[in-house]
Amino acid sequence: MSADPITLRARFNPLIKPFLVMQIGVTMIFTVVGIPLAVIWFLGVGRWWAQHYFDRLECQLGERSLRFRKGILVTTEKTIPLENIQDVTFIEGPILKHFNLSTLKFETAGHSVGQASDMRLTGIVDAQAFRSRIIEAREALRHPAPSAHDDPQLAVLRSIESKLDDIAALLRARQ
User: Fold this and answer.
1) Partners of 76 in the beta sheet?
2) Which of 1, 41, 76, 96 has the most CB within a 10 Å radius?
3) Residue 17 in contact with residue 49, Cβ under 8 Å?
4) pLDDT reading at 149 higher than 70
5) How far apart are CA 130 and CA 80, in angstroms?
6) 76-81 and 85-91 as β-strands: parallel, antiparallel, unpaired?
7) Cα angle at 103 between 142 and 27, to 5 degrees?
8) Cα 30 from Cα 39, distance rounded (Å)
9) d(Cα 28, Cα 31) in Å, to the nearest integer?
């Protein structure tokens, strides 16, 4: 089995680091047990964690699949065949906008509702363009351009064209 050649590698916005620190820190503050942890988080552990998370973020669009990897302690690596992608949703809210970020959510065929929530990527630079490239690649797989070898009508037309060229050559020779 050969590896899917990479056609496009996503870049991630470094502003995802402060976004993650704030998102996780605020979540800790809302829990009574998490308040002491939030203090430690905001004093430096959060920045360290966000940097390592950012360094491990990866997303690659191949000819036949989309592969992404994220996480530190729990690493999630998914390879999604492009033909299984039903939709790529672009999400941008006020907090994400403040950090100049957006999220791409991937909906795939054959997965339960619970698994769909795991297929989100936040922080891709120019996420709209990346989304468009994914959809274009998916459509190219679903509707490949016909080639002369695959299309019987085109093969017949080429055969007729060849015969007409032979007839035209014979007519020129007689003159």
Assistant:
1) 70
2) 41
3) no
4) no
5) 15
6) unpaired
7) 145
8) 12
9) 5
CB 71 within 8 A of CB 59: no
Contact (CB, 8 A) for 147 and 40: no
The structure tokens listed for 4 are 């899917």
In terms of average pLDDT, the best of 50-64, 99-113, 117-131 is 50-64
The alpha carbon torsion through 78, 81, 87, 88 (nearest 10 deg) reads 50
Which of left, alpha, beta for 150 (phi over 0: left; psi -120 to 50: alpha)?
Answer: alpha
Assigned token pair, 6 = 């990479």
Amino acid at 92: E
For the whole model, what pTM was predicted? 0.70
Rounded to whole angstroms, the Cα distance separating 115 from 118 reads: 6
The alpha helices in 9-126, defined as continuous H runs, are 16-29, 34-40, 46-56, 94-98, 113-116
DSSP 85-105: EEEEEEE--HHHHHTT--EEE
Which residues share a beta bridge with 97? none
Q: For 67, phi and psi rounded to 5 degrees?
A: -120, 130
Q: Inter-axis angle of helices 46-56 and 16-29, to 10 degrees?
A: 130
Cα 63–96–113 angle (5° rounding)?
A: 60
Using the predicted structure, report yes or no on whether residue 3 has a pLDDT greater than 70: no
